[in-house]
Amino acid sequence: MSRAIALGLDGIAFTEHYSFEASEPVGRLRERYGGAILLFRGVEFSAAEGHCLVFGVDTDRLDLRFAPIRDVVRIVTMAGGVVIPTHPYRGGNSMGELIFAVPGISAVEGYNGANMHAMNVKAVAAAGRMGLPYTGGSDAHLPNEVGSCYTVFDDAVTDENFLPLLRAGRFTGMDTRKISRAMML
Length: 185
Prior knowledge:
This protein is α/β, with parallel strands linked by helices. Helix content is 26%, strand content 25%. It contains 6 helices and 8 strands, in the order αβαββαββαββαβα. A hairpin with a 2-residue loop joins β2 and β3 (50-55). The longest helix has 14 residues, at 117-130. The radius of gyration is 16 Å and the shape is globular.
């Protein structure tokens, strides 16, 4: 939290792996830091085809673990939430080209702070081909990783309008990491 505030971030989203309940301590953080920064809860959910971010729905209450992504998107959307495929070109637990066949996603995670630059470039290009916006997220597991990638919204974000702004696609992802000359060759 201190790093996010020091960097001047307006908000931070906690998206713990596999469990919405794992981000329960965010409530206590809101009490402590709520005047200085917005805090949002979500989950990095495991669909059958790979990981996705889910906001606005307690996925622990839904019987969705490892469900097909089409079912995840349909059920989460019906419940008022938003689904965004994460790090689609990282491999392993990522959807790759399958993102093109998933109707109803709100965006694509374009910039992920734990990805290599080439993976992010491919994700941003895919979002463009799909006509979708892309987000940025640090995928931070340590304080010094916070803010490496982030999302800039066109409008001021509040607790009340976070989900509607995600649905409207009025944002873009950013990557603050320096690209070495060797990576640009």
